[in-house]
Design brief:
Blueprint lengths: L1 H7 L1 H4 L7 H14 L16 H24 L8 H7 L3 H23 L2 H7 L4 H33 L17 H9 L17 H19 L16 H7 L1 H15 L12 H29 L13 H29 L9 E3 L2 H9 L6 E4 L7 E4 L10 H14 L6 H15 L17 H8 L7 H16 L2 E3 L1 H29 L1 H20 L2 H7 L5 E2 L2 E2 L2 H24 L3 H6 L1
Antiparallel strand pairs: 1-3, 2-3, 2-4, 5-6
Helix pairs in contact: 13-17, 16-17, 20-21, 20-23
């Protein structure tokens, strides 16, 4: 701005043509004093620093003196060669003749060259200047393009400096019309939260080197074969079976999703899943993490702890993750097996067209479905359950999502509640199950016209250790229903008190089996039992129960401290007796197959 003002000012316009004479003389005088004379370059020796540089400069001056003396002697006329004298000294006349002839030819050639007018020859040369002119024109165009590139670069740097921070970007409609901002968002990977966009540039060589280093580290960590030679450049270019061999976590995640989505067999797991499935897995994963992160934040801010961890995750995910999730899957598998076993005990499993009734509340809700117009059935005195078939159309298989919501509401109304992360995972699981309806004609478990028993036995493999148990149960289930007894409303009401009493006992025994046979659940139960026993030994248990910090409930209601201590002492003995009775029980259906 100052320069533009000075150039436009009339007072300074006349001074731009030439500097003041006195200033020019002062500048020339200062330059002469500062710089060495051009004819005495030897003065540069003052700038030589160190012994090595000084020695090199001394040798350079010695060579310069030799060249100077040679040039000074070249100006004098050289003495002609006395060939007669040399002819007498050289005995080999052939060598002498060759030297004399060569000297004569070279001298004549040099004399001829010196006699020519080189300036006139250069002036006569007029061809070839078109190439020079073309080169000059090309250079001028290159300079113009360089100036354009420089201007665009300056504009880009200015715009980049004025860009807002990444945290202020949003996915709005103007991104679709502005190509610059599209490139800016893609450059900073706004859609990809797995990159540290502030320090990582996915287009740089450093990022490529980091990806390759991570690949080699993962290969050495998970492959376990000691392989150093890799036939593929990057892991995503390897076949899927080798990818899953290295990345065990994605294999479990993708396999669970595939089995839940299709209800198929693990042996039919595809080489590459559809892209839409990967997108669904991504959505389900972040839906669960959204709940887990919100839960973690609440706990972290409430406790002000130094560190906090997600629910259902180990503290050291990198080292303990595989063992932790293996135990978690085993625990869920054991719980599912025990739940199926309890349903099989009263032939509720596969009885889809009937409403199981084991309590007065269930009896009341069952008859409310059609006003008591349906029919009750009994499968025998040893079955602690009645079955109600409503009048009209047969019952359909309920929707998985509706079933989960009903279970969650029942747990909340009875004073229990699912953990937030478990509830989110459970609901996501039922949503994936419900998505089967699009390919199965509105059904999610059975094919059209297929019973749940046939669908279950079709899916279970014959090599499964539990196949014989389910096959025997399915056979006995058919026999029981073939001999089922129809009950009137009065007969059903008369049997309900005894059935409800046996059902309550069954619930207590089931808890003993659950915490006695399942190692995953018994470890946590034993730890809590030991803590309560220690509180009872030191005398702190009555105070915690009286203050309401701990609550103990049995069939009759709230328990006193003495009853809790006595129940803790009797828990192991009662549990062991129940387990012995259950393990000693023999199933008639399995005995027939032997």
């Amino acid at each position: 701005l100052k320069l533009s003002c000075l150039s436009s000012c009339p007072a300074h316009t006349s001074r731009k043509a030439a500097p003041h004479p006195q200033v020019a003389r002062m500048m020339r005088r200062g330059l002469r004093n500062a710089l060495p004379k051009r004819d005495r370059w030897h003065a540069l020796q003052e700038y030589a620093v160190g012994e090595t540089n000084t020695e090199e400069f001394r040798l350079l001056r010695a060579r310069d003196s030799q060249v100077g003396s040679l040039v000074s002697t070249a100006g004098t006329d050289t003495k002609a060669i006395n060939w007669s004298e040399w002819e007498g000294k050289i005995s080999n006349k052939e060598v002498f003749g060759c030297l004399k002839t060569f000297h004569s030819q070279q001298s004549a050639l040099l004399d001829q060259v010196l006699a020519e007018d080189h300036a006139a020859a250069v002036k006569k040369q007029t061809d070839g200047w078109e190439l020079f002119d073309a080169s000059v024109a090309s250079c001028q165009k290159s300079v113009e393009k360089s100036e354009t590139i420089l201007k665009n670069g300056a504009r880009a740097l200015w715009i980049s400096f004025q860009n807002p921070p990444i945290s202020l970007l949003s996915q709005s409609e103007w991104l679709d019309a502005d190509q610059y901002w599209q490139a800016f968002v893609e450059k900073h990977h706004f859609y990809h939260n797995h990159l540290a966009s502030a320090v990582e540039d996915p287009e740089s060589k450093d990022y490529d080197a980091k990806v390759k280093a991570d690949l080699k580290r993962n290969w050495e960590t998970f492959d376990g074969r000691g392989t150093t030679r890799q036939n593929n450049k990057l892991l995503y270019q390897r076949p899927s079976y080798e990818y899953y061999d290295v990345m065990r976590g994605p294999l479990i995640e993708h396999m669970i999703f595939y089995l839940t989505k299709t209800g198929g067999d693990a042996r039919m797991f595809p080489e590459v899943m559809p892209t839409k499935w990967f997108a669904e897995i991504y959505d389900v994963r972040f839906k669960i993490y959204n709940v887990l992160q919100r839960r973690k934040r609440q706990v972290h801010e409430a406790t002000w702890a130094r560190e906090s961890f997600h629910d259902f995750h180990p503290h050291d995910l990198e080292h303990d993750g595989e063992a932790y999730f293996s135990k978690l899957i085993a625990k869920e598998s054991a719980s599912t097996e025990l739940c199926a076993g309890r349903l099989m005990g009263n032939f509720i499993l596969f009885s889809d067209s009937y409403v199981p009734v084991q309590s007065g509340m269930a009896f009341y809700k069952a008859i409310q479905m059609d006003g008591g117009k349906g029919t009750f059935y009994s499968l025998g005195a040893d079955v602690h359950c009645l079955f109600y078939k409503p009048a009209g159309e047969a019952l359909t298989t309920p929707d998985p999502v509706d079933s989960f919501h009903a279970l969650a509401d029942h747990a909340s109304m009875t004073g229990r509640k699912f953990e937030a992360g478990y509830a989110a995972a459970f609901e996501a699981f039922t949503e994936v199950l419900s998505s089967r309806k699009a390919g199965l004609g509105g059904s999610w478990f059975t094919a059209p016209g297929e019973s749940s028993k046939d669908a279950f036995m079709r899916r279970i493999k014959r090599s499964d250790p539990s196949y014989d148990i389910f096959a025997a149960y399915a056979e006995e289930h058919g026999e029981r229903w073939a001999a089922a007894k129809t009950l009137s409303m009065e007969e059903a009401m008369a049997q309900m008190p005894e059935i409800e009493r046996k059902y309550a006992i069954e619930c207590e025994e089931y808890n003993s089996i659950l915490f006695g046979l399942n190692d995953e659940l018994s470890a946590a139960a034993k730890l809590e039992q030991e803590q309560l026993a220690k509180l009872a030994d030191v005398g702190e248990l009555p105070g915690k129960i009286d203050s309401g910090e701990l609550v103990a409930i049995d069939a009759s209601g709230a328990m006193k401290a003495d009853g809790v201590a006595k129940a803790i002492d009797e828990l192991d003995s009662v549990r062991d007796k129940t387990i012995d009775v259950v393990l000693a029980t023999k199933l008639p259906a399995l005995e027939k197959k032997k």
